[in-house]
Amino acid sequence: MDVLQQLMMGFQVAATPTNLVWALVGAFVGTIVGVLPGIGPLGSMAILLSFTLQMNPTTAMIFFAGIYYGAMYGGSTTSILLNIPGEAASVVTCIDGYKMAQKGRGGAALTISAVGSFVAGTLSIIGLMFAASMLADAAIKFGPPEFFAIGAIGLLFLVRLSNGSLIKNVIMLLLGLALATVGTDKLFGTPRFTFGLSGLGQGVEFLPVAMGLFGIAEVMLGAVEKETEEKMIHVRFRDLLPRVDEWKRSVAPILRGSVLGFLIGLLPGPSPVISTFVSYLTEKKLSKHPEEFGEGAIEGVAGPEAANNAAVGGAYVPLLALGVPFTPAMAVVVGALLLHGITPGPMLITERPELFWGVIASMYIGNVMLLVLNLPLVQLFAKILLIPKQLLLPLIVIICLIGVYSVNASYVDLYVLALFGILGFVFRGLGYEPAPLVLALVIGPMMEGAMRESMMMYQGDIAQMIFRPISGSIYLISAIALIAPYILRGIKRKKEQASAA
Amino acid sequence: MKERLVSLGILVFALVYLAGSVSLKVGTGARPGAGMFPTAIAVALLAIGAFHAWRTFRAPSEPDEGHSWTQLAPAGIAGALIVYPFLLHALDFLLSTFIVLFVLFRLLRFKTTLVSLLTALGTTVFSYFIFAGLLGVVLPAGIMEEFILKITGLE
Fold first, then answer.
1. Which residues contact B57 (CB under 8 A, 6 or more apart)?
2. For A444-485, how does the pLDDT look when each residue is reduced to its tens digit (9 = 90+)?
3. pTM of whole model > 0.90?
4. Per-domain residue ranges for chain A?
5. Which of A29, A48, A177, A181 is most worth mutating to test chain B (most B CB atoms within 10 A of its CB)?
6. Which of the listed residues A212, A452, A492, B73 has the most CB atoms within 10 Å of its CB?
């Protein structure tokens, strides 16, 4: 079957009434999540993981894809109308989006943002479709040393690209890897760090850790934050139509943002956030009117909004092709797949084509839904911010508690949730990013298994493990990617010093 | 102060984890045991944790920034999270969830006591209806829970 035939099969899967309803629910929930500051797509996906237990795996994936995309759409609404970014990937949109709204062009900014998100989302799905199939074909040749290399390099990039202090990110990563070693050893059946608790025999569950660090910790941090009263700028329906010059100025930034976003999305770390900054700086550099940036330039909305949506498509590539999540949100998706007994990996596309192509097709449908949903309901979504946090926060706590308990009916999981909620509050308050810990917890067992298998394959000869053609290339390319910025910076500094002299 | 405490906590964890790791069979390069990967992680964590602790203690002591660990609301939420499993075990879903939800509403000063009470009650019953009734999640149930499912026709 060629790609088009497979895609048509995917559309047949995605267009069933159940899948369409869940795609719509996901898109709607995602938009709300994007609007509400604090509860990002990751937290909400973690909270809603238990909802997917009764679904079939394809429906669950379609639901999550809707949430992820919806959050990117929704985040821009409050950035433009209230100067409050709904989630981190919409921070950049505040700069010019809110200025445009103050000048009476808020409607145009919202439309350009929605259309840009739609175009970028669609383009990135095309990229995902081809890149994931090609990468999965290549990955069939991968052995344990290659999977260890991908895991190690992925985590290395993650700590490098995550926000905050490098040393704190490394500590969180190592804590995550340490947690991943809890449970019965898969090779010898030796219990490790279980303290005699049978509930820990299967290891530390990912769900209560993620929900604690992201959901509960967010609630606790939200409880101590002072409420701010922002003035919302109202937009009439007829103001939503951009002027011809605004359309013209937006086309190139949207296309550039789509490409940049997709490529950055392939990298480990908070790719949607990084892509918006890169896109904004690129547009400013390429613009004939850089002085307008910060004062309400439409390019400053079009580019970043396209980029953050395209990054979502990119982030799905390593997950669907290799089974390795490179962003915390993708780790939740892995969690959902594992809950349904599916281990993601290179064989996913051939073994479960209905899942892979169904999710891809649902992304196209979801993007159309989001475009139709977002523009007419923009004021309604913005009003969600008016729900008092005194009502919202306890409800999130209860959903987390029920959600965690419902997976295994385990009291141990509830204690793990409480522990990581408290730890998350303490750590996040001091600038320790939870994302490396969560990703390490998910990737850790795969890395350990791959490392031990590789060592046994090569009788403990680490050099042979590293210098295999594919794994060696992975290490080499990654080393160049990590070192190149420092070298380029050094060259630039020398040039500046020389010209100053 | 908080930075120092946390860095010390990480260091203590690394030491305990290292002790646990080496007590497992580390094995050889050709036949790695259950303790090899944990030992490698523990050594790295201990080294980086020690360096981080040294840096935080060397830096001049500054007044703590950000939120306090002892503020009532987060402390109350933490308490509710710890107590909830015990309550759930002893009182089943409806009563335990109602109590925790009501306490959280009051902690965060959501409107009046009566509104908090009614909202907690409504939310608890509604969430049971959604999770146990519609989604089929198995939650600890007693007479009250069965009654809810009976009157909604979802038993």
1. B4, B7
2. 888 899 899 999 988 888 888 888 888 888 888 888 877 888
3. no
4. 3-466, 468-501
5. A181
6. A212
